[in-house]
Specification:
Helices cover 32% and strands 26% of the residues. It contains six helices and twelve strands. The relative contact order is 0.12.
Length: 237
Amino acid sequence: MPLASRATGALRPPRVSQRHNPRCPGGSFPNSRGPSRLPTRSTATTTLAALTSMPTRSCFAMPAHPPEWYLRRGSASLKYQRFGSAAHNFARSFASTLNWSEDDYVMSWLSRAALSSGASELNADLLTGDAAPPELVDSHVSVSIRARIAYLPRHLEAEGVSIDSVEQAQLRLRFDLDGVVRDPVSRVIRIPFVAEVRIRDDRGIEHVGSYQDTWLGDCKEPKPRGRRWRRFCEPAA
């Protein structure tokens, strides 16, 4: 918008300030002092030649003789290192509220079976599906184990490894029956546990992932749900 001069009162055009750009020797940015100058072809060529002829810093240069650990690194070694995190995440997922079967959590079924039978340890083969002891492996637990075995290849693929590199995979869930705390009012039991997954790769190296926590469950088995709840909440067969 034109502005009025203080001395004469005449209108004068607004002044567009220009700011010099030090990174471009032949040009300048708007809103800076002085006239605007655009870089010429010769100036741009000189600037490009100066930038391309700059020496490479030593911290980014490849050494003439790389160390042995640098030569051994690669996607193969990093792939095998991910088995540890994959085993830990699988154990934590199994012993969590994400594991549901037949109106209750699988950990609640296992904790009640362990307290009633006295068997404190569950062992399952994640490749063949064999599980023991029979006191803990009822119909609810066996369904969950089969579902987890079917999910194992996708779980490993999400972690960045392949099921083809696995020779053996074992799941062990151990309850501490001596540390059980019962609440007679709320009928809640607190039982410490340790979930552990051992994966042996095709090189013979074993990777262990464990998860330790305390499970809170109900002392009594839940009542069966109605047909309407099963229709909308259970997955289709």
